[in-house]
Amino acid sequence: MTDDELEVWRRQWRSQPQVPLELIRKVERETVNMRLSWISQILPALIGAATIVGAVITQNISWILLAGGTWVFILIGWYFLVQNYKGVWEPSAATTAAYVELSIERCRRTLNDIRFSIVMMWLLTAFVFIADYQILKGTGGLTTTSDFLIVAAAFAFATVIVSIVFIYQIRKRRRTKTELEYLLNLRAKLETDSKM
Amino acid sequence: MRPAAEGRQIFAQNKTRAALEERFHQLLSANGPALLRLASSYTNSRSDRDDLFQDIALAIWQALPRFRGESSERTFIFRIAHNRAITFLAQRRPVTASDEDIEVPDPRPNPERGFATEQQEARLFEAIHNLPIDYRQVITLTLEDMSYTEIAEILGISESNVGVRLNRARQMLRQLLEVQK
C-alpha cells in the first residue's frame, strides 16, 4: 500500500493551502457582482412584460412585433449570460493557483460579456427605434411637424444615453484587459518563482 | 432529594462534563486538520466547508457521551464526520459566499510553497472532487493514513470492498489527473 504514487498524493492532500486574503476577497467580490448582474435582469424582464401588456391592450401588429422582438433579445441575452458564466462561480480548489486561474478566466468571460453587450445594445436600440416609429406611424402619432420633432428629440436623447453606456463599456473593457494582462504576468511570475 | 445529595450529583455531572469537554478539545486538536480536509473534499466553497466542519464538531460533541470504546476514537469520529458530510450533501444548497464569510487563519502566502506545487495540489483536489462519492470517501480516508479495517468500519463496508473501491478510485484519479495535464 505504501507505494510512491500514494505517498505523493498523501503529501499533496495533507498540505494546507494558503491563499492570499486579497485574492480571496477579490474573487468573492466578483462572485457577488456576478450574482448582482443576474438580479439586474429583472429590469429587461419588466420591460418585456410591459411590451406584452402593450401588445395585449392595443392588439396592434407593431406592438406585437415589438413585444416578440424584445423577448427574443431578452432570451438571447439570458442564454448568453448562463453560458458565459458557466464554470466560473467558484475556484476548483482553495489554492492560490486555482484562485489566479479563476480570476483570469473571469476576466476573459467579462471581455466576452462586454463585446456581446455592445453588439446587443446597438441592435436593440435600432430595433426599438424602428418598432416605435412604426407604432407611432400606425397610430397617427406622427402627423404634425412638432410630433416629428418630439420623437426625434426622444430618439436623440436615447442615443445619447446608449452612447454613454457604450463609452462606459469601452472603458470597462480597457480596465479588464489591463487586469487580465496583470494576472497573466502574475501567473507567469509565480510559475517562474516556483521553478527557481 | 436532599440538598447535600443534590450538590454531590451536580458536582459529579460537572466533573463528567469537564472531562468530556477536555476529551472533545483533545480530539479536535488531534484530528481537526484531517476533518477540515475531509470537509473540503465535499465542497469547494470555504463557507460551506466551515459550516460542515462546525456540523461535524457539533455531531462529535453530541455523540461523545455515547462512545463506549467499541472502536478507536479516530474511527468513531470519522464515521460521524462521514455521516454528517453525507447529510450535508443531501441538503446542499447552491454555493453562496459574501465578503463577511471570508476568514483565513493566515493570509500570507507561504514562500516555501511554490506555485507549481500548488497547481499540482489544486489538480489533485479537483480530481478528488470529481470522483463519485463512494470512491472519494475511500481515497480521502486512505490519504489520511487509515487502514482497510478502519475504512471498512467507518463506511460500513467489507475490507475487500474497500480494496476494490480503492483500486477503482486510484485508476479514476490517475485518469482525471492525466486529463488535467
Record the SSE blueprint.
The complex is a heterodimer of chains A (196) and B (181).
Chain A: H1 4-14, H2 21-39, H3 42-58, H4 61-84, H5 96-138, H6 145-195
Helix pairs in contact in A: 2-5, 3-4, 4-5, 5-6
Chain B: H1 3-40, H2 46-63, H3 73-91, H4 115-130, H5 133-143, H6 148-155, H7 159-180
Helix pairs in contact in B: 1-2, 1-3, 2-3, 3-6, 4-7, 5-7, 6-7
H-E string of chain B: HHHHHHH
Strand content of chain B: under 5%
Structural class of chain B: mainly alpha
The major beta sheet of chain A can be summarized as: none
**Annotation field: number of helices of chain A:** 6
Distance between the termini of chain A: 33 Å
Percent range for helical residues of chain B? over 70%
Poorly predicted residue ranges of chain B: 94-112
Give the helix tally of chain B: 7
Q: Biggest interface in this structure?
A: A-B, 39 and 41 residues
The percent of residues in helical segments of chain A reads over 70%
Over the alpha carbons, how many angstroms does the gyration radius of chain A reach?
Answer: 25 Å
The 3D shape of chain B can be described as elongated
What gyration radius of chain B follows from the Cα positions, in whole Å? 20 Å
Mean pLDDT over the residues of chain B? 78
| Low-confidence runs of chain A | none
Q: Which percent band covers the strand fraction of chain A? A: under 5%
What is the element string of chain A, with H for helices and E for strands? HHHHHH
Can you count the beta strands of chain B?
0
Tell me how many strands of chain A there are.
0
Taking the sheet with the most strands of chain B, its summary is:
none
